[in-house]
Amino acid sequence: MGVFLNNLYNYIMLLISSSSIYGSLLACLLIFLESIIPILPLFVFIGIMMLKYGYFLGFIISYVLTCLGCFMAFYLSSKINNNYIVKKIKKNFKFIKKLNKISLCNLALIIAIPFTPAFLVNILSSISGMSFKKYSIAILIGKIFLIFFWGFIATSLVESLKNPKILILIIFMLLIAYIIAKIVNKQFQIK
C-alpha cells in the first residue's frame, strides 16, 4: 500500500510541475468561476495553485480570484434584482429580508466557514439589497481563512499520500469544520 501511495504522490507532483501555462490559466479561470458555478471543487484548484506556485503566491492568486468571482456573482445577481421571480422570492422568504440586517462580523464568519456555499451567499446578499461595501468587506475578510483552510487541506491531502497521520488530521479538521457549519446553520436558521 505504501508503494502505491508513494507512486500516486510522485505522479501528482509530476503532473503539477509539468503542466503548461494553459493548465494554470484553466485553474485560475475555474477558481474565478467557482463563486458562480457551485459544482466546481474550489479546494482542488486552490491546492493546484499552492502546489505549483508555493504557499504564498498560490494563496495570493487563489484569494484574489475567489474574491473577484464573488464580486462578479454579486454584480450579476444585482442585475436580475428586479426580475419577477426574484420579487416573488423576496416576498415569500423572510430569511432574505433578515440577511440584509446580519452584522458584518457574522457575515464574514459565515463566508469563512469552508462548507458554506459561496454562490448562495453571493446571490442572496445581492438579492437582499445588502450594500456592496458591507458585502465586499465581509468577503475580503472571510475568504482569507477559507483559502488558507482549503489550501492546507489540499496540499496536506497530497502530502498524506506519504504520511497517513496527515490524512487522519485532515479528516478530523473536516469534521470540525462541518460541525461548526452545522452549528452556525442552526443558529442563523439558514435553509
Give a description of the structure:
The protein has 191 residues and is mostly helical. The chain has one domain (2-188). The chain has helices spanning 2-18, 21-34, 42-53, 55-79, 84-92, 94-99, 104-112, 118-127, 132-160, 164-188.
Largest beta-sheet characterization: none
Helix content: over 70%
| Average pLDDT score | 77
Radius of gyration: 18 Å
The count of β-strands is 0
Beta percentage is under 5%
Spans of 5+ residues with little confidence (pLDDT < 50)?
none
Q: Please indicate the count of domains.
A: 1
Helix and strand string, N-terminal first? HHHHHHHHHH
Structural class, from secondary structure content? mainly alpha
- How far the N terminus sits from the C terminus, by CA atoms, comes to 42 Å
Number of helices: 10
- Shape estimate: globular
List the helices and strands and how they pair.
Elements: H1 2-18, H2 21-34, H3 42-53, H4 55-79, H5 84-92, H6 94-99, H7 104-112, H8 118-127, H9 132-160, H10 164-188
Helix pairs in contact: 2-3, 2-4, 3-4, 3-9, 4-8, 4-9, 7-9, 9-10
